[in-house]
Amino acid sequence: MTALFMKKTLITFILICTVSLVNAQEYKFGKVSKAELSQKVYPLDSSANAAILYKKRTTTTELSMGEITLSTTIHMRIKIYNKEGFDWATHQIYLSSSKNSDKETVYSIKAVTYNLEKGKVVSTKLSKKEVFSETKSKFLRVKKFTMPNIKEGCVVEWKYTVRSPFYTSVDDVVLQYSIPVKKYEGRITLLGFFTFNKRTKGYFPFHVKEEARNNPNFETTDKIYVISAANIPALKEEAYVNNIDNYRSGMVFEVSKMTIPGRVYKSFSHNWNDIAKNIYQSPSFGGELHKRGFIKDDVAALKATLKTDSEKIVGAFEFVKSKVKWNEYNGKFVIDGVKEAYKTGAGNTAEINLLLVNILRQLGLNANPVLLSTRDNGVPLIPTSDGLNYVIAAVEMAEGVVLLDATEPYSTPNVLPLRDLNWQGRIVREDGTSDGIGLTPVSPIKETSNMSITIDEDGYIKGMKRTTYTDLNALHYRNRYAKVKDEDIIAKIEERNENIEIENFRITNKRKAYKPLTEMYTFSSEDLIEEIGGDLYFKPLFFDALTENPFKLKSRVYPIDFGTPFVDKQTVSISIPEGYTVSSLPENLAIGLPNNYGVYKFVISATDSKILLRTVLEINTSVYPSSHYNELKEFYKLIATKNAEQIVLKKL
Predict the structure, then answer these.
(1) Where would you tag: which of 301, 342, 395, 629 has the fewest CB atoms within 10 A of its CB?
(2) What residues contact 431, with CB distance under 8 A and at least 6 apart?
(3) Within a 10 A sphere around the Cβ of 281, how many other Cβ atoms?
(4) Cα 624 to chain center, whole Å?
(5) What SS3 state is found at 275?
(6) Which distant-in-sequence residues (6+ apart) come within 8 Å of 517 by Cβ?
(7) Angle of helix 349-362 versus helix 309-323 axis, rounded to 10
(8) Element (H, E) at 370
């Protein structure tokens, strides 16, 4: 028997024993073992700062005082291995409410911290005074607590029940987190009056058993889903992911129809056309597009001055942006209505963009709403009403579709904020038709920078940098800095690049959304050049270089989301100080990604008096497939390595 065979056999045996122990162990609240408290690292992932030893979720439909409620009980036990895992000792319970004051409520919070002290298990209970409430918005509250007596090696445990009047809105089943999960158990009981579409998501497989049970209280046959999994690995997040929840293993439920024999039948969703049509027919959506009396004078004034279609689009767009400000609420339905939003000067996404569609139609344009899911809401992979949480405006023209989001003061036609750029939207029309529409820009966004630098014989540098931003890059910049004082922007740039001091700072077109935005400044530094034996050593891009690979995972199961194709160009001109000559330059580099997904070029040359460097990083896709992750990782590794190489100037 070979050593390799014995090693594989031993590993297999250990894994079988681990799974058997997981399945055999019972997790009764309050019964934390010394073995759990003594454990120094998680056996299957020694890098884990914490691990969920056990999570159980039980969801049932209940009848109380003639009202149907959805009751969900959560039991969670977490092992904290070190100080980096202390964040897992804080827990938040999100509670929704509705326009008509229905709200979710949390009951029976029990929470305990366990430590092993002198060989004994010491318990510290969470007191009611340590549970805090916070209002996040008109429709969202949070119950929050941080466990007491947190130490390295402790175990925390909590259990609570949430009762919800929204009995058709079943929270997603979540099995995977940024830390590993040892064991998960779930039991979801859904009332037989309702038929739910269900789907699993994520890359880690788990077991789902479907059962049926007679419910004498409702005289229905309820559906029960028993969900189980063990040894779930951590879902580790790194750069360029749109919403990690899209790839987290779990299960999603959405009601598709309600059937109460002899009383009610209602279909909620079958396909995207049905969903779009149902939403459009709602008084809180399509009904708002016919309210025109309150704005007829303003529309008449716009008609008198706007002649071409382009003028009408921009004129109506800027008019709405000037009249109604976004109140930070997303929504596909209005809350108070377009008239009230216009009157008060504030509204949610639906009120602002449905008002825009309304005005565009009155100006004679073929304008319609576009339903979409924002990036933080996830990608709706199946037809789902809940998966759509936002609305923008579209004008259909012979030349193509113009997309507009008037919630952003510095947006322009076809330049949508990043939150909107999430796969596809659904354009919905008054005649009941709808079509999918791509939201990701086809043309790359561009950022171009030029630096000119002089170096004196002591290695002190002075320079000037000019960067031009367009489209989405300009929108991001304006959103971040349009209302920020120049001295505060300077402080942020200096903080990001701690080796420079900035002078003569200037931004052109800071608030002029229809013009390219340019940032210019001069800078100086004593710390960007190293002198060794009289020679000068420095990186060719100085402080403006990517020198760390953003991709560090061994493998990645979810795609790389750049948001949009992009082109970054950098030009650096370096004056060689008198008394020095070029001793060493980095070699030129030209590399590409498979399938023309991207290229990087690094071209450097020198004369007696100057060094000239040009770099181009071009990514030609908004979403890069995980199947080519290793190539992308190597691509960025080569870029970072090249940017870290040094120019050497030799003293004559």
Answers:
(1) 301
(2) none
(3) 12
(4) 16
(5) helix
(6) 468, 469, 470, 474, 477, 478, 507, 508, 509, 510
(7) 140
(8) strand 367-372
Counting every residue written for the chain, the total comes to 652
Alpha-carbon distance of 158 to 109, in angstroms, equals: 7
pLDDT computed for residue 14 by the predictor: 39
For 437, other C-beta atoms within 10 Å of its C-beta total 17
Q: For residue 236, with 0-12 CB atoms within 10 Å meaning exposed, 13-18 middle and 19 or more buried, which class applies?
A: middle
pLDDT recorded at residue 543: 93
Element (H, E) at 384: none
Shortest CA distance to 639 belongs to which of 598, 610, 611? 598
Residue 320: C-alpha distances to residues 30, 295, 354 (Å): 57, 11, 10
Residue 219: predicted pLDDT: 84
Contact 614, 570 (CB under 8 A): yes
Looking at the DSSP assignment, which residues form a beta bridge with residue 222? Answer: 213
Token couple for 49: 């700062």
- Inter-axis angle of helices 296-305 and 309-323, to 10 degrees? 140
pLDDT at 18 over 50: no
Other beta carbons less than 10 A from residue 442's beta carbon = 8
Count other C-beta atoms under 10 Å from residue 391's C-beta. 29
Question: Does pLDDT of 157 surpass 50?
Answer: yes
Q: What is the mean pLDDT of residues 242-250?
A: 94
Q: If DSSP codes are grouped into helix, strand and coil, which group holds residue 112?
A: strand
**In 10 A of CB 266, how many CB atoms?**
10
356-412 per-position pLDDT tens digit: 999 999 999 999 999 999 999 988 877 888 889 999 999 999 999 999 999 999 999
Q: Which of 452, 540, 525 is nearest to 494 (CA)?
A: 525
Q: Do the bridges between strand 400-404 and strand 623-624 make them parallel or antiparallel, or are there none, so unpaired?
A: unpaired
Burial tier of 297 (Cβ tally within 10 Å: 0-12, 13-18, 19+) = exposed
Phi, psi of 391 (to 5 degrees): -140, 135
From 110, 112, 114, 111, select the one nearest 153 (Cα to Cα): 114
Task: List the one residue out of 564, 571, 517 whose CA is nearest residue 544.
Answer: 571
Describe the crossing of helices 296-305 and 349-362 by its angle, rounded to 10 degrees. 60
Compute the half-sphere exposure of residue 629: CA atoms within 13 Å on the CB side of its CA: 18
CB 112 within 8 A of CB 124: yes
Supply φ then ψ for residue 651, to 5 degrees: -75, 130
User: What residues are paired with 525 via a beta bridge?
Assistant: 461
User: How far is residue 494's CA from residue 486's CA, in Å, rounded to a whole number?
Assistant: 12
Evaluate whether 129 touches 140 at the Cβ level (below 8 Å). Answer: no
Task: Give the Cβ contact number of residue 136 at 10 Å.
Answer: 11
**What is the sign, positive or negative, of the torsion defined by CA atoms of 36, 38, 42, 43?**
negative
DSSP state of 549: -
Q: What residues have CB less than 8 Å from 91, skipping those under 6 apart?
A: 76, 111, 144, 145, 146, 147, 158
CB half-sphere exposure, 245, CA atoms < 13 A: 13
Residue 463 host element (H or E): strand 461-469
Place of tokens 């936002």: 390
CB half-sphere exposure, 382, CA atoms < 13 A: 14
Helix (H, G, I), strand (E, B) or coil at 56: strand
Q: How far apart are CA 499 and CA 446, in angstroms?
A: 26
Which tens digits make up the pLDDT trace of 318-366? 999 999 999 999 999 999 999 999 999 999 999 999 999 999 999 999 9
CA dihedral over 354, 356, 359, 363, signed as positive or negative: negative
pLDDT at 10: 41
Residues 542 and 342: their CA atoms lie apart, in Å, by: 50
Say what the pTM is: 0.88
